[in-house]
């Protein structure tokens, strides 16, 4: 992922201002270590830090139209750029970059072209003919973007908080699926899919339609001119991504550049059952598998760096981001610049454990809609920033626009978990790839429930974090938490510890408002907490909080030490964090 920074209408075209913009842009250099670019037109500045994935030789930014009257700085990948170029046959392109189409689409279609883009993106487009500009973010918010206002009347846009938090009077998260137009003076939503209304769909489940839609989503993400791989945890989602990639890699341009041997990556605590599962899947698919180990202390030592890069104090996100952050550094050291990952499946198909308690298909569907709409604050934030911290790009096929439309149109009755009928979580996805003639995965992997680490291995990560926080946060500090942090008041010592670190890096009120809050059990929304009365008194983001579902649920009367290890190892795991073998 690249880094973009724009300052527009700042009433200052001095050399000092240019130097300041350059300084702030360098805060994003980790996102794009391959090249830096800065364009100035009067008091408007567009800066870019490039991670070169497509056309590394000539695709440096900012990008222009033919006469350079339209200027674009963009972070993203446009998967249908070749098709769009055909529609723009009368235009002359300066580079082979997939993002080069944006300026020309604006010339041809005005501000209404954004929905034509199939990909992930955040961009700022400046029309120097009248100094108007537009800003847009992809449908789900896979790429990160922030929007700020200066006291001098300027507008600021940055891929990360750290690019604007010190210079803006107020700033916010730029909403996914939206466009800001300086001509209209406000935001409008360009992404309006059928599922967004949350009306319950009725399309009958067709496993082949779902299969082909996901295969297409993976295949289009093989567009690359640099070495790449897949994150593989051994869970369903990452294993399917790896299987499809391995199956279709041979016929792609990427294979011509880098060969047909797929590389896979996994990280975990020593002895993790998921590491074993990932090796089994890698052996079955024939990938070159790279297994990395980390210790609880390694993770604790990285917490401050993680919070600085991920820019959140959300407990679940920090727990899950840390191993992904460590793994990304290892992957980049091998010369890999892009990975394909499995985020989004649990939100679309109701894969979290608390979905077992969904009272009906209407509530199930509404919860999946809410989860998808919030992804930019959680898993997308983690996947984007944990990898970008080391100049690595993550692509997420489950969040493909076309695939989401297909998956969210399915009658949710088919998604409901019905154990008496042999339907476990994400049954519709598992069934879609159950091919007897050309198996995608071994049957026991395809229908394998997400495994829980044993207490001494997996839970030691979270328990270690809690113990570390307890050494730095006293009971007295917790008594005053509501006065120190009146917004999103931390209710645990772990949350308080993360909040202290976040506030040190990002002390502005606007910064703390970018992080979501509210009651949650096992990653649920606040509304889903109402599904089970017992959950209201056991609010925790861990899967173990799903009382009555998770066999190792928190229970004072039945300590985990009394549960046989063979039983623990067969417990469904709460999340499938691609490539990461930890309990979140």
UniProtKB/TrEMBL annotation:
Residues that coordinate or bind ATP: 231, 267, 341-342
Record-annotated site: Important for beta-aspartyl-AMP intermediate formation: 343
Listed GO MF terms: asparagine synthase (glutamine-hydrolyzing) activity; ATP binding
Record bears the keyword Ligase: yes
InterPro entries associated with the record: Asn_synth_AEB (IPR006426), Asn_synthase (IPR001962), Asn_Synthetase (IPR050795), AsnB_N (IPR033738), GATase_2_dom (IPR017932), Ntn_hydrolases_N (IPR029055), Rossmann-like_a/b/a_fold (IPR014729)
Enzyme Commission numbers on file: 6.3.5.4
Catalytic activity, reaction form: L-aspartate + L-glutamine + ATP + H2O = L-asparagine + L-glutamate + AMP + diphosphate + H(+)
GO terms, biological process: asparagine biosynthetic process; response to stress
Keywords of the record: Amino-acid biosynthesis, Asparagine biosynthesis, ATP-binding, Glutamine amidotransferase, Ligase, Nucleotide-binding
Functional pathway: Amino-acid biosynthesis; L-asparagine biosynthesis; L-asparagine from L-aspartate (L-Gln route): step 1/1
Residues reported in the UniProt entry to bind L-glutamine: 98
Enzyme class: ligase
Active site: 2 (for gatase activity)
Gene Ontology, cellular component aspect: cytosol
Glutamine amidotransferase type-2 domain: residues covered: 2-185
Database matches in CDD domains: Asn_synthase_B_C (cd01991), AsnB (cd00712)
Protein name, entry field: Asparagine synthetase [glutamine-hydrolyzing]
Organism of provenance: Theobroma cacao (Cacao)
Organism classification: Eukaryota, Viridiplantae, Streptophyta, Embryophyta, Tracheophyta
């Amino acid at each position: 992922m690249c880094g973009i920074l724009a300052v527009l209408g700042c009433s200052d075209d001095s050399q000092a201002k240019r130097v300041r913009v350059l300084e702030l842009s360098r805060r994003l250099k980790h996102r794009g270590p391959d090249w830096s670019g800065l364009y100035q037109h009067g008091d408007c500045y567009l800066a870019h830090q490039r991670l070169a994935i497509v056309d590394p030789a000539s695709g440096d930014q900012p990008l222009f139209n033919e006469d350079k009257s339209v200027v674009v700085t963009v972070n993203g990948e446009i998967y249908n750029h070749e098709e769009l170029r055909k529609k723009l046959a009368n235009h002359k392109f300066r580079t082979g970059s997939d993002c080069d189409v944006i300026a020309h689409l604006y010339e041809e279609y005005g501000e209404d072209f954004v929905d034509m883009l199939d990909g992930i993106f955040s961009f700022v487009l400046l029309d120097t003919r009248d100094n108007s500009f537009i800003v847009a973010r992809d449908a789900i918010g896979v790429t990160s973007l922030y929007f700020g206002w200066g006291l001098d009347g300027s507008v600021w846009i940055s891929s990360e908080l750290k690019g604007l938090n010190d210079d803006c009077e107020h700033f916010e998260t730029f909403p996914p699926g939206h466009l800001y137009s300086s001509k209209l003076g406000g935001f409008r939503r360009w992404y309006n899919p059928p599922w967004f209304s949350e009306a319950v769909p009725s399309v009958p489940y067709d496993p082949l339609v779902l299969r082909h839609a996901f295969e297409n989503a993976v295949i289009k993400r093989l567009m690359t001119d640099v070495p790449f791989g897949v994150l593989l945890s051994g869970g369903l989602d990452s294993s399917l991504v790896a299987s499809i990639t391995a199956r279709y890699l041979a016929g792609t341009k990427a294979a011509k550049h880098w060969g047909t041997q797929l590389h896979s990556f996994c990280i975990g605590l020593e002895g993790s059952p998921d590491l074993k599962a990932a090796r089994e899947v890698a052996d079955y698919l024939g990938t070159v598998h790279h297994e990395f180990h980390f210790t609880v202390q390694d993770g604790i030592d990285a917490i401050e760096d993680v919070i600085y890069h991920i820019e959140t104090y959300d407990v679940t996100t920090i727990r899950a981001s840390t191993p992904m952050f460590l793994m990304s550094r290892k992957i980049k050291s091998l010369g890999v610049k892009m990975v394909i990952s499995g985020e989004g499946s649990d939100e679309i198909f109701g894969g979290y454990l608390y979905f077992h308690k969904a009272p009906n298909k209407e509530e199930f569907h509404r919860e999946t809609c809410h989860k998808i709409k919030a992804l930019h604050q959680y898993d997308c934030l983690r996947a984007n920033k944990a990898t970008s911290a080391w100049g690595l790009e993550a692509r997420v096929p489950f969040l493909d626009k076309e695939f989401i439309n297909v998956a969210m149109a399915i009658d949710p009755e088919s998604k409901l978990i019905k154990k008496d009928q042999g339907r476990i979580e994400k049954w519709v996805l598992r069934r879609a790839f159950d091919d007897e003639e050309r198996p995608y995965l071994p049957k026991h992997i395809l229908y394998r429930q997400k495994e829980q680490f044993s207490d001494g291995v997996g839970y030691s990560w979270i328990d270690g974090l809690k113990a570390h926080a307890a050494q730095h946060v006293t009971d007295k500090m917790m008594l005053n938490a509501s006065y120190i942090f009146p917004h999103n008041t931390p209710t645990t010592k772990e949350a308080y510890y993360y909040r202290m670190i976040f506030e040190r890096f990002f002390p502005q009120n606007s910064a703390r408002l970018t992080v979501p809050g509210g009651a949650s059990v096992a990653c649920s929304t606040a509304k889903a907490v109402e599904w089970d009365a017992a959950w209201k008194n056991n609010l925790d983001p861990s899967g173990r909080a799903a009382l009555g579902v998770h066999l190792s649920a928190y229970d004072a009367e039945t300590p985990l030490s009394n549960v046989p290890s063979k039983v623990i190892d067969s417990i469904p795991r709460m999340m499938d964090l691609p490539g990461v073998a930890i309990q979140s």
